[in-house]
Amino acid sequence: LLQIPDNEKGHDLDLFCIPKHYEEDLDKVMIPHGLIMDRTERLARNIIKDMGGHHIVALCVLKGGYKFFADLLDYIKALNRNSDKSVPLTVDFIRLKSYCNDESTHCVKVIGGDELSSLSGKNVLIVEDIVETGRTMQTLLSLLSGYNPKMVKVVSLLVKRTSRSSGYRPDYIGFEIPDIFLVGYALDYNEYFRDLSHICILNENGKQKYKV
User: Fold this and answer.
1) pLDDT value at position 12?
2) Phi/psi of residue 116, each to 5°?
3) Could you give the CA distance from residue 116 to residue 124 in angstroms, rounded to a whole number?
4) Interatomic CA distance for residues 116 and 151, integer angstroms
5) What does the pLDDT read at residue 77?
6) What pLDDT is stored for residue 173 in this prediction?
7) Could you read off the pLDDT of 87-123 as tens digits, one per residue?
8) Which one of 47, 105, 111, 151 has the largest count of C-beta atoms within 10 Å of its C-beta?
9) Which helix (DSSP H) or strand (DSSP E) does residue 111 occupy?
10) Omega before 63 cis (within 30°)?
11) Which long-range CB contacts under 8 A does 76-84 form with residues at least 24 apart?
12) How far is the C-alpha of 210 from the C-alpha of 188, rounded, in Å?
C-alpha cells in the first residue's frame, strides 16, 4: 500500500484545478487525481491476478464508492480486453449509512441487502471508498457470509490510521491516510465535494458552511 505520513502537508490548491465554489473550503490537495488513477490501475491488476480465475461480482458500496468503482472497473475491463485470459464481470450495488457531519455514528444501516442472495457461490469483490473504524465493513461482511459466497475480497481506496480502528484491514488498499477529514473524488461531506477530482483536506470554513 501507499502510506501518506501524519506530517504530510499536502499540495497548494493553486497548483491544481479546483472548482471555484470550493476554493475557500479546502486547505490542501492531499492526493491528486492522477495519483489516484495510477494507484487504481495497479489495484485492478492485483485483483485480476488473485480473483481472475472465476466470474467476479463487483459490489459497489454507494454513494462514496461509485467514482472509485467506475474507474477500477474501467481498468479491469481494459485488462480483460488486452490479456490472453479474461474474466466475466457483473456488478451490484449496496448502500451503507453510517455518517452525519464528520463524526462516524455507531449505527450502520444496510440498504439494498435483499437482493444479495444472488451472490451465493460467487466470487465477490466489495469496492469501498474509505475504511475508518472498519466496523461498517465488518457489518457488511457478516451480512454477506449468510448468503454463502464462494470468495469475498474487499478493496478500499483509502484506509484511515486511527485509534478508533477495530483492527480490520481490507484485502487491497490504495492509500493509508492520517486521521483527518478528507473530501473529493466522491468522498463527501453531507453530500458536497463529490464533484471535486482531487482528494483534499477540508478546512473549518468548509465544515461550518456545509454543516447540516
Assistant:
1) 97
2) -75, -10
3) 11
4) 14
5) 92
6) 97
7) 889 998 888 776 555 555 556 667 775 677 888 888 9
8) 47
9) strand 103-111
10) yes
11) 76/44, 76/47, 76/48, 78/44, 79/44, 79/45, 79/48, 80/48, 83/48
12) 10
Rg of the chain's alpha carbons, rounded to an integer?
17
Q: How far is residue 41's CA from residue 18's CA, in Å, rounded to a whole number?
A: 24
Cell of 44: 485492478
Contacts of 204 (CB under 8 A, 6+ apart): none
Q: Between the CA of residue 160 and those of 157, 163, 166, what are the distances in Å? A: 10, 10, 11
pLDDT of residue 84: 81
With contact defined as beta carbons under 8 Å apart, do 75 and 44 qualify?
yes
The pLDDT tens digits of the residues spanning 29-67 come to 999 999 999 999 999 999 999 998 788 999 988 877 788
Q: What is d(CA 88, CA 52) in angstroms, rounded to the nearest whole number?
A: 9
Per residue in 167-187, is it b (16+ CB within 10 Å) or e — as a string?
A: eebbebbbbbbbebebbbbbb
Assigned C-alpha cell, 170: 481490507
Confidence class of residue 136 from pLDDT cuts 50, 70 and 90? confident
pLDDT at residue 186 above 80?
no
38/15 Cα distance (integer angstroms): 19
How big is the CA angle at 67 (ends 178 and 6), to the nearest 5 degrees? 10
Among 66, 129, 125, 127, smallest CA distance to 99 is for 129
CA dihedral for 177, 179, 184, 188, sign (positive or negative): positive
